[in-house]
Every structure is written in structure tokens, then in C-alpha cells.
Amino acid sequence: MQYTLRNVPEEVDRALRARARREVRSLNEAALEAGTPSSGLSRCCSSIRRMAEWIT
């Protein structure tokens, strides 16, 4: 399944891109992992946390 996300908040974009760079992963992989409660990234910023809570 594929999705296109628009209007991603800047804080979410920065956090996802930083994590992808740090872990040498794709942005897609970082974004998918951000939705999992155990990722740790959801504690990084409130927008990701809200997105993760909505998904689960």
C-alpha cells in the first residue's frame, strides 16, 4: 500500500530526516517506524506523538 503525505509539519520533517540520516535509512523507513510506539521518535516531538497515537 502506498500513501502520499502532504503538509507535514516542519518539526516532524526535521525529526524524520535527522533519524533517517543518523541511522543510514530511507526517509520512508524512518516514517514507517515513527508510527510504532517503541520507536522512541514519538517522544521527540508532539506532532509525531499525536500521529502515532492516532495510528494505533
Provide a short characterization of the protein structure.
The chain is mainly α and 56 residues long. It has 3 helices and no strands. The protein has one domain.
List the helices and strands and how they pair.
Layout: H1 10-22, H2 27-34, H3 46-55
List its salient traits:
mainly alpha; 56 residues; 3 helices; single chain
Structure commentary:
The protein has 3 helices and no strands. 16% of the residues are buried. α1 packs across α2 (27-34). The protein has helices at residues 10-22, 27-34, 46-55. The protein is mainly alpha-helical. It has one domain (10-55).
Average pLDDT: 75
Give the proportion of residues in helices: 55-70%
The string of secondary-structure elements, in order, is HHH
- Give the count of structural domains: 1
Rounded Rg: 10 Å
Strand coverage percent: under 5%
Per DSSP E runs of 2 or more residues, the count of β-strands stands at 0
Number of helices: 3
The coarse overall form would be globular
Main sheet: strands, sense, barrel: none
Q: Give me the secondary-structure category.
A: mainly alpha
Straight-line distance between termini:
17 Å
Poorly predicted segments: none
